[in-house]
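ingest -> validate -> predict -> emit
validate: passed (alphabet ok, no gaps, 203 aa)
predict: started
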Amino acid sequence: MSRRVAGEGARWFARGMAEAGPGERAAPEVRGVAGYESPYPYLDRLQPKMEERLARRVPATGRFCGLCYARLRAEDTVCPFCGTATAARPTVDEIPQEVLRLYLQKQKTEARWVHGGAFFGLILASALFLWMVLWGPGILGHPALAFGVLLLGGYVLAQLFGTFIGAQIGYRRGARRRDAAWAAFLAERDGGAGPGGERSGAG
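emit:
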């Protein structure tokens, strides 16, 4: 969910600038999500699918792309995620545990930043509540107003530091770690494949 919020924010900004009038300054095209553009775009598209597999909401076995391990239908001859043809790279029956772990690491990293940011926002709201009750001058020290600030401020600050700021930081950090782990996996599996899955020394 946090990645979706970060992505929607980036797309909203890009759409707004693209619709700017002729007299308004247009910003450069926004690429990637939350300020990070993955060298392996198919990993972002696969992340929710792999999270379904991690949660055991889909079968562990099946027909999977031999490059990116996306689940394929029986009639698929080209992977819809990475574009690899099944004739060029045979399918496999199961996703390696090492691959699942790199998606899990990204999911946990993002979740830690979202939850940590939300908790920080709640602490700030609680501190503001205590200040108002103990030292707030005049109407600011009224318990009813302070309680309202605690509820509303807690929600707003948790959303700000968790869903928005924390989600973007967590996405960037988690995606970078996931992509680095995937690059290492490709290097070990294929002898140094590039972002598209091709061998770096291929002629």
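The two ends are 42 Å apart (CA to CA).
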